[in-house]
Write a structure and sequence with these properties.
single chain; 279 residues; two-stranded antiparallel sheet; binds thiamine diphosphate
Length: 279
Amino acid sequence: MAKNDIFVPYYRDMGTLIQRGVSLEQILLYWGGDERGNCYTPDSRDFPPCVPVGSQPLHAVGAAYALKFRKEKNAVLVTCGDGATSQGDFYEALNAAGVWKLPLVFVVCNNQWAISVSRAAQTAAHTIAQKAIAAGFGGEQVDGNDVIAVQVRTAEALKNAREKNEPHLLELVCYRQHDHTTADDASRYEPKHLREQEWKKEPIHRLRVYLESLGVWTESLEASIQAEVVQTVDTAVKAYLDTPPQPLTSLFDYLYATLPKVYAEQRDGLLKREKLAHG
Ligand SMILES: Cc1ncc(C[n+]2csc(CCOP(=O)(O)OP(=O)(O)O)c2C)c(N)n1
């Protein structure tokens, strides 16, 4: 992605957010429910992740429409999971992107599960990529465990979006290598052999084997990068834990440019109560 492109992520995109310049500390703030985790650098146009499943493709349509309206030669890239593609919002977004010819790339991380709902139970469509056909633009399946294939196909789709206002859908076929969240226990519904079979295609290991074959990855390089990463994570966690709590008024401060009267009154009331309670 180019710096001035717009990334509209879902909740699995921490890695891409870091790559786009969001700090680990901000990511921790976000997941700690702190609004300051949404305040990226002033020159970033990326969106924070939106947790309601399937909601962000429509936000991306709005951003892509704005780019086209302003005649900017940039593109929007939005991500979601295979489960999200069953939501009405997803189809509305595809339809709008197709009919308005928006510079928008949809990237679906098809990890075969939406919590306990398997890909087969999710849709009778043969592929998710083909859902783009009904909206009048192209879609394709990409090996989502192949980092290089994903990079190449995404770059091409973004180029076509920027230069020709051509929307596109990339279905990254991969596998969820862990429980949905730490609150989930996939052993209750996931056939054991599947995880074992898919683990053999795990993309980070695969990339490492490739880089080793080129002679550009060694154990000592890996050890030094790991030590650096541990240090970076520890520093970010400490900074996060040391951050003073956000003011209560942050409940009101991030949704409107100008607060409607009714909320302005509630905000004042909150401040008064807080003052009474804490002096
Ligand atoms: C509108 C909505 N319904 C339900 C949920 C609860 N929920 C969170 S993640 C998830 C599954 C999403 O699966 P998928 O889109 O395949 O993404 P994955 O997490 O597997 O990458 C559900 C149902 C939610 N966040 N939003």
